[in-house]
Amino acid sequence: MEPNGSSPSLTKIERNGSSAPAIIEHKAFARIGLLGNPSDVYYGRTISLNIENFWASVRLEPSSDLLIRPHPTHDLVKFASLDHLVNRLKNEGYYGGVRLLMATCKVFTNYCKEQGIHLHNNNFSLSYDTNIPRQTGLSGSSAIVCATFSCLLDFYKVRDKIAVEIRPQLILNAEKELGIVAGLQDRVAQVYGGLLYMDFNKESMEKYGHGNYTQLDTGLLPPLHLIYAENPSDSGKVHSAVRQRWLDGDTFIISSMEEVASLALEGKRALLEKDYAKLATLMNQNFDLRRQMFGDASLGALNIEMVEVARRAGAAAKFTGSGGAVVAFCPDGQSQVEVLNNACKKAGFAIEPVRVVPSLLNEIDIRNQSSGNA
Ligand SMILES: Nc1ncnc2c1ncn2[C@@H]1O[C@H](COP(=O)(O)OP(=O)(O)O)[C@@H](O)[C@H]1O
Ligand SMILES: O=C(O)[C@H]1O[C@H](OP(=O)(O)O)[C@H](O)[C@@H](O)[C@@H]1O
Ligand SMILES: [Mg+2]
């Protein structure tokens, strides 16, 4: 695994000798919610893209015992002192990636059993690594789950038995299993790659168990920038209160989520027409609606400041996910990008150009898309 390297190859299957069982390695990349998030949690719509800037990788090695290997830093259990332990919990919480790997194994196994998909009895060990800034709304959690899921698909050779459009829901189920409130957009972007328009309308979700996912030409995108800060926030916690209000029938939340969903629909049109002034307006509206629904305390002062620094430079800006990272677009071009770069550096925020991942579907995946994907 080389998450600190620079060139992300997608899949690696190593054979040590002609008869030795294969080691399988998969990557899953960070994603940006460009428009419509978080309405994906509420039968809405989003436009999202998978980005090469950051990724998680998972390695599966055949072994005699079934072993889930803790990550040396993300699942820290050895500390220099009590203060170190307490600080670590304060800044990063109790959890690392081990629980994600375990939940993925459980959801995968149960789904295969329910569907009558045969799994052989060989064991494996799983380890992971990631360079996705932790809990910054770049979908670091589902990248770990998605890469694990891909390893299991290949280890059990069942890629042709689990249709592509079903996989995001199974990946989401692994996090649901852990009580994390989240939606499908991350997982769809990570399974499909590229730029996607997603429609999670209730009818399709209930009838087929998935939304309608359309891959768009990544060439439609204008240059985008990613801004982020070391500021972990727990996306599950951020979402729980708003989710509860939505379940309780709060009319403000329900109508605002519908408005957010409609931004993705308008955004699709704007992208197809290359109407980037419109795109900028929609991105700003998206963040303003999130801010009204979630409230400043839940979004966090530093996260709001990231959006405001970008806006003061004249850029359109919104969260990539639930908070921690921002996607910015400079409608006035390169001179504005320079102003934005300087403003971010001055404020202590990292900024870098967005690099989009091309489609990740292989021939088996494309052949096995179910007919329910209208
Ligand atoms: N970089 C990471 N390393 C290990 N585990 C992680 C990492 N990021 C997220 N997780 C796990 O996923 C859970 C949910 O993370 P989440 O808040 O959704 O972050 P993100 O915005 O990166 O998806 C965390 O509580 C933790 O268990
Ligand atoms: O709030 C959002 O936009 C997203 O939040 C979660 O993503 P994360 O990267 O963990 O912040 C959630 O999983 C997504 O479905 C939401 O759209
Ligand atoms: Mg997450």
TrEMBL record:
It comes from the Eukaryota. InterPro entries: GHMP_kinase_C_dom (IPR013750), GHMP_kinase_C_sf (IPR036554), GHMP_kinase_N_dom (IPR006204), Glucuronokinase-like (IPR053034), Ribosomal_Su5_D2-typ_SF (IPR020568). GO terms for molecular function: ATP binding; glucuronokinase activity; metal ion binding. It is an enzyme of class 2 (transferase). Residues 110-194 form the GHMP kinase N-terminal domain. Residues 269-346 form the GHMP kinase C-terminal domain. Its EC number is 2.7.1.43. The keyword Magnesium applies. It catalyses: D-glucuronate + ATP = 1-phospho-alpha-D-glucuronate + ADP + H(+). Its cofactor is Mg(2+); Co(2+); Mn(2+). It holds the Pfam family GHMP_kinases_C. Keywords: ATP-binding, Carbohydrate metabolism, Cobalt, Kinase, Magnesium, Manganese, Metal-binding, Nucleotide-binding, Transferase. Belongs to the GHMP kinase family. Sugar-1-kinase with a strict substrate specificity for D-glucuronic acid and ATP. Involved in the biosynthesis of UDP-glucuronic acid (UDP-GlcA), providing nucleotide sugars for cell-wall polymers. May be also involved in a salvage pathway for glucuronic acid. This is glucuronokinase. It comes from Deinandra increscens subsp. villosa.
